[in-house]
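The aim of this short unit is practical: by the end, you should be able to scan a pair of folded records and say something sensible about each. We start with the first protein, listed as its amino acid sequence and then its structure tokens.
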Amino acid sequence: MDDREAPAAQGKRVGQRHLNSNAMPIPTDVKLSSRPKSSRDLAPLLAHPDQVMFLDIETTGLSRHYDYITAIGYEMGGRYDVWLAGDDITSFRSALESARSLVTFNGTLFDLPFIEDAFGNLNWPSHHVDLRYACRRAGLVGGQKRIEEQLQIKCREGMEGVDGAMAVLLWHRYLRGDDHALEQLVSYNCADVRAMTHILDHVVSELVPQDLLAYKKSLYSFKYLADGHEYRLPRRRRHIPVHLRPAATFESLFSGTFVANATIVGLDLTGSEKRLTGMCFMRGNQAETEAVATDDEIVDKIVSAQPDLVSIDSPLCLPTGRTTVFDDDPQRHFGIMRISERILKRRGINVYPCLLPSMQRLTARGIEIATRLRERGIRVIECYPGAAQDIMGIPRKGAGVEWLKLGMSEFGIHGAFETEHVTHDELDAITCSIVGAFHLAGMTEGLSGPEEEPMIVPRLNGESTQVVGLSGEIMSGKTSTARILEDEGFAYTRISEVIDDVIRERGEMPSREARQRIGLELHRSPGQRWLCRKAIERIPGEVPSRIVVDGLRWPEDIDYLRERFGGGFKHVHVKAPLDARLNRARSVGRMTELQWAAEHPVESGVSALEGVADDVLMNDGSLVSLRQRIRKFMQLEP
């Protein structure tokens, strides 16, 4: 969506390995050293010219978290070689260990961190010259290609028009059987490496002191590396390693699950009703798209579709502390960026802050539409489609409409969009729907900070959060169930504890009367979503992989947890016969409380939650039998 994603920086950009990364095990007998920082000292390059390695990498995109290395090109002693994703790393590792100096362009921020993330610590040379910084000292600024133009370096014959974005497409073409695309990719990488030798020539001539001129001329071997030397590209494989082919498909991920027949609406929202919004209705793996204008039209169409989930590519909350989207907010000092956006920045993804002036109306519109849908009982998530495109193994939207169409079809999403003209926004809306499918399957993570709603990002690897929410009448045994799960490693939290926190903040002591009075007040405003979020935030540290939430009393509690954790959430209603509940109440002196609950409008409605529970756990025996039943019920290891 044009409104939301920040344009990528020119030149090389920070990234990290993709889900299909090819990191090799690190042998235990290899001496490891941390990657070297860029040095201002050029003398070692002249002292051992045949052991200087020029290095440049190609990747699938921007992010070290979501993308991966496709090629590592390197030259030493006048010989160029390349490692390709799927190759054994031994040859590159051996070459790196024999090098005494390393030369890169922006390797400090890009190439070296990317390589280290993919392969762990390597035996790096101790000396590193990053030409990006050395060029500045020599009076040259800009990216590598701009400096090549300034110095009139000619190393790209036949590579005109190929840049970093095209290199990504060349890799994807190769994965789909185009061997010539791989040859072009390697040639492009080789041109980058060759150009670095010319740039270093210039930098050395500018920065090496005059009193070393004779020394410089006698060992100025960079000239022979750059001029008149015949570069022979290494012969590469003609097969595509199986593990590099896009493997995730709709059928492989969701066949036989609830998602296979779910209805998910995706919205690629724009900041104004004057611009059309891309909209997708995905039923199973069949997608229908259209472009819509007004908020009323969007809401009406979604309500009519009765979806299981709505996935919107738009900010759906404000940064912690902010009260409005606009610059006249008295709490403006809290800033314009949310924690989720900061997390993406750290992962190497450029996104606009949600309250940047150009983003304010989009954020306000997204929040308004989400609120209207939730008031109608429809669950809504904020999504990040780019991560889903990475998982599907297709280039981001900048590659063009045809690549997005091909990627959707290969993933197993079908519809008229495959052959008919559709807008870019409609294709992005399909991706939003796919993010919703991942979420319903419990294959996502939520990026957020305190007081913020999560941005949902798909993932195939790693453990998704498993959340059990417990409802049940008083003395049914839900708290006992929760404590048993806590013993099994679940982090415990309870919504009523949030109410107790508020009671104490007001200078009162928690009591049945206070909980009833203030609990109903908080239910009305700020509402159950706020209470549930606060209950999750009470868990110290980062959100753990397993959580049990005790004391669900309202349908809104279930809606929030199911919306936030998707398929990772399970609502369990704990049930016990009335005589068992009476006996338990008598044994602990809580008969009055049991009688009160039967008359209280909130507590008396808890029994109705059984009808919307994923599972019902009958607790009609002893605590020992309950523990055994829970272990079997939750499929916990003995």
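Turning to the second protein, read its sequence before its tokens, just as you did above.
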Amino acid sequence: MTERKIPGIDDYEGAAGGWGALAAVARAVKSQMAVGRETSALRRVNQPAGFDCPGCAWPDPRHTSSFEFCENGAKAVSWEATGKRATPAFFAEHTLSELWEWSDHALEDEGRLTHPMAYDAEADRYLPISWDDAFSRIGDALRALPHPDMAEFYTSGRTSNEAAFLYQLMVREYGTNNFPDCSNMCHEATSVGLPESIGVGKGTVTLDDFAHCDLLFSFGHNPGTNHPRMLSTLREVSKRGVPIVAVNPLRERGLERFTSPQHPAEMLTNTATPIAQTYYQVKIGGDIALLKGMMKWLLDADADDLAAGGKGVLDHAFIAEHTEGLEALREDLANTTWEQIVEHAGLTREDIAAAAQLYANAERVILCYGMGMTQHRRGTQNVQQMANLMLLRGNIGKPGAGIAPIRGHSNVQGDRTVGITEKPTQALVDAIRRTYGFEFPLTHGHDAVEAVRAIRDGRSRALVCMGGNLAVAMPDPETTIPAMRTLDLVVHIATKLNRSHLIPARQAFLLPCLGRTERDVQASGLQSVTVEDSMSMVHASQGGLAPASEHLLSEPAIVAGIAKATLPQTKVDWDGLVGDYDRIRDDIEAVFPIFRDFNRRVREPGGFRLYIGASERDWGPRGKARFLVAPGLGEDPVGGTPELLTLTTIRSHDQYNTTIYGFDDRYRGVSGRRDVVFLNRDDMKARGVAHGDPIEIVSQAAGASRTVSGFIAVEYDLPRGSAAMYYPEGNRLVPLDSHDPQSGTPAYKSIPVTIRTLRDPHVDAG
């Protein structure tokens, strides 16, 4: 970084974790003013008789007995268990127009919602309403729509399996498959790409595999901020002397070194464990090129070794027995030159060869990846090229090896498993008919992008959101927000206020639900819900805190209330299911046999793992895993001029998805602000931009131009031609049509932009 001092911008020299993490947790707890409540909750997080962390989806250790400290998990618990309340008195004091001017942080920081509320257009305020009246009006509005496909039903990854199952059941009995959900915006490329490659849209490893791998790749994710509990696992891998190879455009501190708060020796001596042995700063959008380069090297090395009388570099026995399609991949790689690969990847041929050599020398390899690989115009193909790499040496379906998509929210994977999908199968139609006696159409519904298009075009008139902050999470707010203002009905089921709640429809309802930290008592007594983590482990979660308000209902109870009001001839016993969540789990098992013996197994310590065929080298109906070709090398083909940079959106350390806990990004040296764009030194110099300059950013994605200003340039260590800014601020640069055509995932991670300084040329840049 230059010597020019910019307020709130400095170098951070420490490791991830350590005393900085402990101090951040203390501040988070103190700021929410419910210390007794929060510390009680923190003692129960991820414990056998406690609740699942409402943060990330990283799995718990099998023993499930020791508290694993996680800074951002503690922030999530404090944020939910806060002593602050957004009561009817608060809404009486503020119009929605006033609240729209508040920051996203300030809105959520007002605290927990306490009463069901309905929007009054004349007063421009939310007013309290009884639950019965709210359900009745919502049911009337949904029944009044000319067709069920004119309603959209969004699901957040915080939703439990039980609530999500009831939700999809209600919506399907209503008559539509419109299920935009948070997976559409993050790992849909995994859900679409991996089944075509290995027969299942989930990862193939367990946490135990990390104790047996002899090489670990980390592609396109930042564990120190987005899933900090993973750092403990990476630390253990590093301590065994196993090479960890990081592939990421930005140098992230959590991938470099970690001081574990669980290990007093490191804390007291202020020492850290190195994480990545090797760090490849691939150019944004250069992942396909890197993967193809590694595979090209492997095929060439294999041919040379076979010619010399060796057994080859590839796992030929595995390939012959378990795969198909290698020859098409071989031809594609033969027609791809090293000059093209190096240009697109932004790495040298020697670097790519070194990464491939490491891979060739290892017998048990795990490849982890995050949204840096999926949120591209060709995110699905990115996922499939990673699968290709793993298949070449038989690194799927054996101990200590496999592919590991690192999901974000705590139950985004589970929601999909229990039916939150816009693409129903005949098996699902048959199972619901057999279990409940009603039919629903076998037509594809709307994903998140298509839902917004339908709302924009007037084809959808209602939106029901099970959690989340859809308007902020989606790209292109200039399209998304005005479209949502035209709706006839919007329903938000939520714990705290956010910006999406301030976009009123003709009728708008804000329905407060229990949080995961709170006791859920129904007719049969205290209830547990279940969640599925990134490695397909299903376990129970039971809150222990008193609810934030006596007027809260659980998510299953809210779904049942809407269902009964909407479906007067329903064939589902909603009251019976809500009265005893064991009955919901029995029904989940009846519809999805993968949950065999659900209620018994989920009561075992640590829960149970769902069957993942590829982990057993069962490749599904095709009988073989498939090598799949990705034409060309451009991860986000845009064309354009040399002055274009490729910008990615990133999360700060003080946020989780769209929730902004504060304005610091400790590991990147940013404090008290989010108005920054990280740029390469040489790119700045070439454009006459100085560190700290106010700049304008113009995107050129999908044939549409979007301009934002009010940001400053910050010199940072990232590859030439690459840039980064925070999400969701950067969403304004992503047109609705800029997405992966296979998965529908918006291209948040690869936006073609130009930048220019707004500095007065007569003022010295310093």
